Each structure stands twice: as C-alpha cells, then as structure tokens.
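Hi R.,

Here's the input for the flavin-adenine dinucleotide complex you asked about:
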Amino acid sequence: MAHVVIVGAGQAGAACAAKLRALGFAGSVTMIGEEPAPPYQRPPLSKAYLLGEMEEERLWLRSADFYADQGIALRLGAKVDGIDTAARVVTVGGEAVGYDALVLTTGSVPRRLPAAVGGDLAGVFTVRTLADVDAMRGEFVAGRRLVIVGGGYIGLEAAAVGAKLGLDVTVLEMAPRILQRVAAPETSDFFRALHAAHGVKILESTGLERLLGEGRVTGVRLANGQELAADFVIAGVGILPATALAEAAGIAVENGIACDAMGRTSAPDVWAAGDCASFPWKGGRLRLESVGNAIDMAEAVAENICGAAKAYEAKPWFWSDQYDCKLQIAGLNTGYDQIVTRPGEGGAVSFWYYRGGSLLAVDAMNDSRAYMVGKRLIEMGKSPDPAAVADPVVELKGLLKA
Ligand code: FAD
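And here is the predicted structure with flavin-adenine dinucleotide in place:
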C-alpha cells in the first residue's frame, strides 16, 4: 500500500493529510514536523494569542485525537534533514523513512536582522512560531518601549497589540510608506492614521543603522543618526521560503520550490504546497504567503496524489486585524494603474485596484460585503464600472449582475 510522507506539520501539511483521508486514500500517511506543537494556525500569533486572549489549544487546527483517528502518523519535534529522491527516502535524525509520494510543506523562515547590526542581541524577536511568541509575550508590559523594524502586516499587527497593552510603540519603515510592497498608498494612509490614533509612532523612509546594547538590546540607531531607546525589538522584515531541504536534494527552486500546475516538483513523486512553493501564474511564477493558499494548494496536491490530474487555480485572499479594524483582501494587486475608493457605512471603506479597466483586487476595511462582492467579481472575471463602484448609492450586489 502506498505511503505518503509529508514534511512540515503546519497549515499546508495538515490540510494535505486531512484531504487525503477525506478522499478515501487508504495507504499510510506520515506527517513529520520540526516544531513540538501539533499543526496550528499562525495568524493569531500576531493578533489574539499575542494579546493574551486565546489559549494555545485554540490555535490547533485539529483536536489532539484527530490524527490518530484518521490513521495519520504524526511525528513532532522531528526535523527531516535529507531527501534521497532516487531511493525515495527521507532521513530524520539518521533514521530512513521510505515514501511512495513525498509532499514538502516546509513553510517559510523569517528574515532576521544580521548579527553585524546587533540582530543577535537578547530582546530581539521574530514572529513566526508559537515558541517565538511565547518567548516575547512576557515583554509586553505597559509602559515598556517596543521598536518594530518593518511596517508590513505582521509588524503592524504586533504594533497594534503593543499599543492595546499600553506599550510605547515605534515602527521603523525603510520604504517611503508602510505596506508599500503589498498595498496602495490609500491603504497605507488608512493604517498610518489608525496607528497614529492609537499613539503608535510610525517613522517612514527611516532605515535602521544598528541595534544598540551589550548582550541585550537597549535601543536602536537610525540611518539618520538619531537614537531611540528600546526595551525590546521585533523584526518584521519578511520571510524566505524554506527551500534548503529541497535544494540540497537537487529539486528545482525558483522563488520557492518550483511546482508545475499540479503541484509536482522537478523530482518524481515529490510535491510541494504552501509558503514554500511557487507555481505557474499568468505566464510567470507566483508564491503566496497566506492561509488560503496553504490550504487550497495542499488540498489540490492531495487530489492529484489520488490521481485527479487537476491544475491548482489560486484564488488569492488574505486578512489582517489591527485594533477594531478587519482588513480583508481579495485578489492580487500586482501592476495596478487605478485605485477606486468606495466609502462604506460607519467609517468602513474599500479600495478597488484596476489595471487597464480590469478589476484585480480589493482591500476592504470593516466592509465584508465589499470584500465578498469584490472576491466574487474577480473570480468571475468581471470588472464593474469604476464610477459605479465609487458611488456608495450603487448597491454592491447589483455589480454582480451587471
Ligand atoms: P507553516 O504553517 O509555516 O508550516 C511549515 C512547517 O514545516 C513548520 O512547522 C516548520 O517547522 C516545518 N518544517 C520546515 N522544515 C522542516 C523539516 N526539514 N522537517 C520537519 N519540519 C519542517 N496568513 C493569512 O492568510 N492571514 C493572516 O492574517 C496571517 N497572519 C499571519 C501572522 C503570523 C504571525 C504569521 C507567522 C503568518 C501569518 N499568515 C497569515 C501566513 C500563514 O500563517 C502562512 O501562510 C501559513 O502558515 C503557511 O502554511 P505552510 O504550511 O506553508 O507553512
């Protein structure tokens, strides 16, 4: 009977294992994960869990019994350190585990501030794993000074938690504006104002020269020579796909483990999904860092292992929670040339991204209706008249029928 081995017990790994069983796959399934915790959701790590409003068990994607009940062998605290694609074997601490199909769901690793600029000082944290967050939670005490390097979603979510807990928070962003890599100026402006209203200082066009302190961080020196005191620092400077294992095994990597439309890598019977994997998209390659992609791509891989021969069709969506604002994003805004603003009710607003008259994406703040209609329109390949979108009197649902 076939044996599927899944490397990485995270969002994508768990989705793949569960889907195999849901499809009636009767062979063995082994999931091997480096972290000690059972597969868990990461988004609350920078939101409710960091805030202390969520218990660890509520992060778990499935109950403790699920894996045993489903006949999924879960090996935790176990790192796969090699793949022999010719012998169809992975090694875990010297032990060889054979596979008929291998799924790489190794996720990503946070970029760290280099040791040369003080990135190895105590009191400098990243936000990727439960262990990362458990290590920093004790630092979130009212009145302490937190400097966050990087004004992306994770940095801003951590800033919101810090402000809510009464910390003195400063965000450093090297680019001219926060969220520059991922959103339009309108969205950056919205979140800048939201943070300012909660007392968070956001310094844009501001590079970090180095972290200060001996042994433990005590402050930061900015590229302009200014120094800020800090009791602790969070680096939210992006992630890199975890490709080292695949690369060492000679598997092709191109902005992530390079997959074909089915999720197959360059090695026979080796598949990949989630943050670590790139896939064909509109004549190029795309890699997404989101829960939706991790689940959908992993499920597509499970179906293909079972013989579906089905191309993975990504339907990008994302969300972020900061204070009482829920941002929901549908689509991908790459290459936009027009932004349409649609005011919602009670301070809600949405920004609609177009390219050459085609709707690409929607950022909706506290406006789930705009998000849902926008998502549907993008999936249907429909582009409503920008003037109608901008007019709050025009019913959103009507845009679907137009
Ligand atoms: P992961 O969930 O990271 O799982 C990969 C696992 O593989 C890890 O446990 C890792 O230890 C393990 N692994 C790696 N190498 C090996 C090896 N050699 N042997 C064994 N195990 C290995 N997405 C959203 O859509 N919305 C959000 O609001 C959002 N917020 C986020 C907030 C935070 C703080 C973080 C960190 C992420 C957030 N994301 C969000 C992103 C989302 O969590 C990821 O895209 C998703 O977890 C990717 O799933 P994955 O299975 O590919 O990787």
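One thing worth noting: The CA atoms of residues 193 and 313 lie 36 Å apart.

Cheers,
M.
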